[in-house]
Specification:
There is one protein chain. The protein is mainly alpha-helical. It has one domain (16-110). It has helices at residues 16-26, 31-37, 56-66, 70-75, 95-107, 120-124. The protein is globular, with a radius of gyration of 15 Å. The termini are far apart.
Length: 125
């Protein structure tokens, strides 16, 4: 698949969801539409731990579509704040222990359930 023609550079310390919303706005698209186009979503489903922790393969493929480095995509995930803002210990462990780790993170309130609170156009003002 051909990468997107317009490269939208991430802002310093920008979170993944904000970056996707800003990039989608540049293309006059929805975040879901953008995610489908760059194959981040498959069959309408987001990858597990989306926005918190992306696996290296997904981050690399997504970065290629967005004309970014995989490192840039990984730095926008919440795991970049692990142990400084909250505890994500265990999310990258074998599957049999992931449910307990997920419940621990959920109890901290760091679960993304819907879109951002403000649109990119409103944030520019």
């Amino acid at each position: 698949m051909t990468p997107l023609p317009l490269r939208v550079a991430p802002h310093p310390d920008e979170a993944w969801h904000g970056y996707l919303a800003r990039t989608a706005a540049q293309y006059d698209a929805t975040v879901a539409g953008l995610a489908d186009r760059i194959r981040l979503r498959r069959d309408g489903r987001w990858p597990g731990y989306h926005g918190v922790l992306l696996d290296v393969q997904t981050a690399s493929a997504t970065a290629e579509q967005l004309n970014l480095d995989a490192t840039q995509v990984m730095q926008m995930q919440l795991t970049s704040l692990d142990q400084s803002a909250f505890d994500l210990t265990g999310l990258d462990t074998p599957k049999r222990h992931q449910m307990a780790a997920t419940q621990r993170v959920t109890n901290q309130g760091w679960v993304f359930l819907s879109g951002g609170r403000y649109c990119p156009a409103c944030l520019q003002n």
